[in-house]
Amino acid sequence: MDPLGARSQFVDVQTLPTWQQQIDDNDLQFIHEHNDSLDSQLAFPSPFPFRPDISRKIILHVGEVASLNCTAIVNTSNESLSEKNPVSDTVHLLAGPELREELPKLKGCRTGEAKLTKGFNLAARFIIHTVGPKYKAKYRTAAESSLYSCYRNIMQLAAEQSMASVGVCVVSTMKRGYPLEEATHIALRTVRRFLENHGNSIETVVFAVSETEEAVFRKLLPMYYPRSEEEERVFLPMIPADIGNSEGEPVVPERQIRIAEKPGTLEEDSDTEESLELDLGQVGTHAFARMEGDVDKQRKLILQGQTSEAAAQKQHQRNYNRWLCRARAEDLSDIAALKALYQTGVDLCGRTVMVLVGRNIPVHLIDIEKALLYFIHIMDHITAKEFVVVYFHTLTAEHNHLDADFLKSLYDIVDAK
Questions:
Q1: Mean pLDDT for each 10-residue chunk of the chain (417 residues)?
Q2: Strand, helix or coil at 343?
Q3: What's the Cα-to-Cα distance from 384 to each of 351, 381, 397, rounded to whole Å?
Q4: Are strands 68-69 and 72-77 parallel, antiparallel or unpaired?
Q5: What string of DSSP letters covers 1-56?
Q6: DSSP strand E in 119-241: where?
């Protein structure tokens, strides 16, 4: 591609038709046919009602995101911001060598984060760099949460920087294996919710897609951005059951908050700690729960032996649950790929056998905290019964000897399990 020729092809987003304007005769005929066949009593409200003010902000554009003349465009990359994919290759080509010189100053970008640089030779003033998750069905929940974070953080940066327009590419590249249709659901609903709740200053969001991606976006856009009340009605039954929370974030039942029913009062038949854990569904109309209290003070009392063993165990369990929630939300595929911890069957007594291979743990090259999260994630369901861990120390050297601090942290978090 000739950079000079490409620069002459920059597209002003203000000249592009909005999603509201892109409705054609085929769309109208589809809506008319299906609207007539719907039950007239189908009247439950749509979670994504017809909002012409929002539909007018959306543009579906088949073309390179780097070619858009808008306030910012999105570049999708890896954690070292060095990934080569069709989107990033074009962004670098049009932005020029200054972008490559600038990226090391960002010191990388974690999965789900978004970081900002200037646009350099692009028509866009800024580039928002983000890192999508690697998709594995086994870690689907973590991938969904990370992909949501990508789009949410992109929009958050745009709002914080008072950007009028932002060009968004498909963050989950083929290289990362995320199913396109599932990824598109997350992208569309996250942007919709952000525009509803925080997007007053954002005038235009352009979804820049390839011809392959266009078909999926055209199929799903009417669910989240209906262009009329009739289209809203027709596509309502097609909206998936899982649409996340009020921000579009995936909801994981284990991570829902548990709060007390009557703040400020204690149950006569239970101690203070037990009264903190009524299910959210039993809260009724109460707005807030009793606060957990000063955690540092509680820990100090535990150390001084001034609190009960039961209270100390509950405090420990809450700490463990916080780590477990993080473990379920993070993309841990890079740690899983090391194959340093895995289940290998059962022993003669029927106990689950876990194998830990020391030589597969490059201690100085990995994020030890992520390794700790992975250990918690894998072992949580196994520790419900008796189990055996076999540690292989052969072919190890200084670079893969676990530090004592890691083992201490592990013990402090999971000893109750």
A1: 56 95 83 66 75 96 96 96 93 95 94 95 96 90 93 96 96 85 96 94 96 95 94 90 90 54 45 38 39 54 60 75 78 78 76 80 75 81 78 73 70 67
A2: strand
A3: 11, 6, 33
A4: unpaired
A5: --HHHHHTT-EEGGGSPPTGGG--HHHHHHHHHHHHHS-TT--PPPSS---HHHHT
A6: 126-131, 165-168, 204-209
Q: Which residue in the block uniquely carries the two structure tokens 């076999």?
A: 390
Contact residues for 317 (Cβ-Cβ < 8 A; gap 6+): 416
Instruction: Give the chain's domains with CATH numbers.
Output: 3-238 (3.40.220.10), 253-292 (no CATH), 331-411 (3.40.525.10)
| Distance of alpha carbon 149 from alpha carbon 147, whole angstroms | 5
How long, in residues, is the chain? 417
Dump strand ranges (E) for 170-276. 204-209
**Is the separation of the CB atoms in 145 and 326 below 8 Å?**
no
Q: In this structure, are residues 318 and 411 in contact, taking their beta carbons and an 8 Å threshold? A: no
